[in-house]
Amino acid sequence: MRSATTHPVARVAARAGYVISGILHLLIGDITFRIATGSGGEADQNGALKTIADTTWGSVALWVTAAALAPLILWRLAETILGLHPSERRDNPEDREIGNRLKALGLAVVYTAVAATAVQYAVGSGKSGAVQNAGLSARLMHSPQGKAVLVVSGVVIVVIGSYYAFKGASRRFCRDLTVSPGRVVTVMGLSGYVAEGLTLAGAGALVIVAAVRADPSKATGLDGAVKTLAQLPYGTVLILCAALGFVAYGCYSLVLSRYARM
């Protein structure tokens, strides 16, 4: 497996996944901006994929999206087994930490879910992420064990979101690059990670609230977290900030496609 990760083709294929991630986040940012201006939309990966599906060559683009994510999924699985940045010859103990392996596994699961959703939209069976989340939550709420699973899932999402926000605020994301980032890239990474993290943490909190109140309509994922901002003071401003954050994260993902440590 280690020899496979050192092959140039494998690295180039994995980097293509960052391009897809960047495009999806740019679309999520656009949808979030339209929500702020009253145009509606679904501010999550499902909404971004639906936007692609509605274009002239949408089905082809979705199949390309799923195919491009496959190498990045395999790369994250390799990182889970071998440690972060397996193609690098230097041995950095920090890259071998169990926490980093778990993060790599989590990203592999996320990318797999996005690829699977892309295939669903490509074959015409895609559904709203909010509807899927609420439906799954409703089924789990039928038993105490299911509610416990929801609470644990919510806590995990909050922890992941909090880590993303911390990674952005502390600029730890700079360690993922092979070059020293300039001011523009640093601002993109900082604002992108913080916005993504806080929104994820909000989505996890909604899952916990849904489980405690036995109200599956609250567990609507990232889209629900974005739209919940509208109910807060200065909600429109907060949604616009989230939109800019998603766009910044998308741009940073495009930078990763060229300069990510592999």
From TrEMBL:
One Pfam family it belongs to: DUF1206
Organism whose genome encodes this protein: Mycobacterium aquaticum
Segments traversing the membrane: 12-36, 56-75, 104-123, 148-166, 187-212, 232-256
Keywords tagged on the record: Membrane, Transmembrane, Transmembrane helix
Domain DUF1206: 16-81, 105-170, 192-259
Protein name: DUF1206 domain-containing protein
InterPro entries per the UniProt record, alphabetical: DUF1206
Domain of life: Bacteria
